[in-house]
Amino acid sequence: MDLHGFLKALARRWPTVVVCLVLAIGAALAVTGLSTSVYEARTQLFVATRTSEDTAQMNQGQSFSQARVQSYAEIVTTRQVTAPVVRELGLPTTPEELASRITAVAPLNTVLIDITVKDTVPARAALIANAVAQRFSAVVERLETPKRTIQRSGKRHADDAPPVSPVSLGITQEAVAPTGPVSPRPLLNLAAGVLGGLLLGAGLVALRETLDTTLETSEALGEFIELPGLGTIPYDKNAPRQPLVSADGHSKRAEAFRKLRTNLQFSQVDDPPRIIVVTSSVPGEGKTNTAVNLALSLAEAGVSTCLVDGDLRRPCVASTFGLVQDAGLTTVLIGQARIEDVMQQVGGGLSVLASGPVPPNPTELLASARMQEMLRELADTYEVVIVDTAPLLPVADTVGLASLAQGALLVVRAAKTSREQVRTAAESLERVGVRVLGTVFSVAPLPKGSRYGRYGHYGAYGQYGRYDELPAPRTPASREDAAGPAMTRPSGEK
At 116, which helix (H) or strand (E)? Predict the structure, then answer.
């Protein structure tokens, strides 16, 4: 996924980023509110050597102090320093715990030692720092004091002076009670929360894009498969109550079917198909809804159109129009009736051939010679024959039927149909020599603020072509253009 695709994914899945950001900021604020304030007091010591006023000796003493000051800094946290401080101040802690709150640093090429003490009480932090500095100075001077030497006779001269440490430590800066805590740091925690939330959101979006094999937009469908996109049908919350677009001729969904009608005409100018099957990869992609409304759109444009319910597994064209389903396609195929006897008319000049009784062998019936003859008869009578079929992948009915048609429309549902399902469906049609006219991207999410509301989806197999409820749309849909001219009869045809 390139940068452009990632940015589009972020824009499409912005609720995920917002949720992660809110959670991270909330966690940062919670940590800040629940954390105990810690204060830090600092004192500084100067390490000097006791030498004469001779310049050479002074330089040697300076070098001596710099060489040993790093070692002195390591003594600050030893029990020799912390244990007496705990006893002297009566601290409710152990020498080891106190040592964990003390930091001693000797800057390079200096004879300074910075001692820092952390505590939850400001005044106590300063008190401990000063006590540690004093005790540390005494420990270092005691360690550096040479032991007395005894002559071989075992006697000392009365005028022998007590040994003196060659170094002395002086406090250059006493610790004072700090005015503000060093932790927690609200602004730093908030910045960390914002950064962490953004990174987490971006990571989740990238992960979902990697794992999500569905097609979110019509552009993604066009990039994935080399088939023309003939139409994008937006989600309409009124579709469950009004599945037919003729009931609301000015809706975006109605305009989308008009555009599908026009694009279908212009995509096949030299050889316009007369028999078109409408299918999909799996159930629930809206193929029946597409077939029904495309047929209505053609009929309303003055094109003589016949709609055939070729889904003999679970037909639903008749129920969509409120027609009789007991007599229809299967009745004609087994010779019990003629086409004109079972053909039904609906408003708008559309002729509908229902499925008839569900047979035990739909695959054989739909691929039979009688089916081919019947389609030819319909093509001689009507300008366009739209055949609604079963999904391609679950059953083999459509493959045999599609080979008898002059073109096929593949319906792909937004955010539901996987890439592999689309590829397999297109390949199965191409293997039997079916001309795939293009794709129809159904249930496309609407732009923000559209009056059509939340994202929708078609029902399960047996009701595919009908709408149910789904989560809110995740991608914007392009604004549909006005419909073009209707499909016309080819020259020379009756």
Answer: strand 112-119
CA dihedral 190, 196, 202, 203 (to 10 degrees): -160
How many H helices and E strands in the chain?
17, 14
| Topology of the domain covering 214-469 | Rossmann fold (3.40.50)
Give pLDDT, residue 466. 39
Q: What Å distances lie between residue 174 and 77, 178, 269, 333, CA to CA?
A: 18, 12, 94, 105
What tokens does 236 get? 């309409």
Strand-pair partners of 181 = none
Candidates 120, 128, 35; CA nearest to 84 is: 128
- Please tell me the total number of residues recorded for the chain in this structure: 494
Specify the domain boundaries for CATH 3.40.50.300 within the chain.
214-469
Sign for the pseudo-dihedral over CA of 271, 219, 434, 294 = negative
> Given 3.40.50.720, 3.30.70.1130, 3.40.50.12780, 3.30.200.20, which CATH number is that of 39-144+166-173?
3.30.70.1130
User: 245: which DSSP letter?
Assistant: G
User: Residue holding tokens 């949720």?
Assistant: 19
Token couple for 393: 């992948």
- Sign, Cα dihedral of 256, 260, 263, 265: negative
List, for the chain, all residue ranges whose pLDDT scores fall below the cut of 70. 1, 50-67, 148-161, 247-249, 447-494
pLDDT, residue 72, reads: 86
CA 325 to chain CA centroid, Å, is 45
Q: Where in the chain is the domain with CATH 3.30.70.1130?
A: 39-144+166-173
Q: How far apart are CA 332 and CA 330, in angstroms?
A: 5
The secondary structure of the chain in percent helix, strand, coil, rounded to multiples of 5, reads: 45, 20, 40
SS3 244: coil
Query: In terms of pTM, does the model score above 0.70?
Result: no
Distance set, CA 98 to CA 84, 95, 138, 142 (Å): 11, 5, 18, 22
Using alpha carbons, select from 365, 371, 437, 439 the residue that is nearest to residue 404.
Answer: 371
Cα atoms in the 13 Å half-sphere on the side-chain side of 2: 1
Under DSSP, the state recorded for 214 is B
Residue type, 248: D
pLDDT at 458: 34
Task: List the one residue out of 199, 210, 209, 294 whose CA is nearest residue 256.
Answer: 294
d(CA 3, CA 14): 16
* CA separation, residue 103 to residues 88, 89, 109 (Å): 20, 19, 19
Task: Return the beta strands (E) in 209-341 as ranges.
Answer: 229-234, 275-280, 305-309
pLDDT at 429: 95
Amino acid at 67: A
Contact criterion met (CB below 8 Å) for 206 and 1: yes
What is the C-alpha to C-alpha distance for residues 304 and 275, in angstroms, rounded to an integer? 12
- 287 forms beta bridges with none
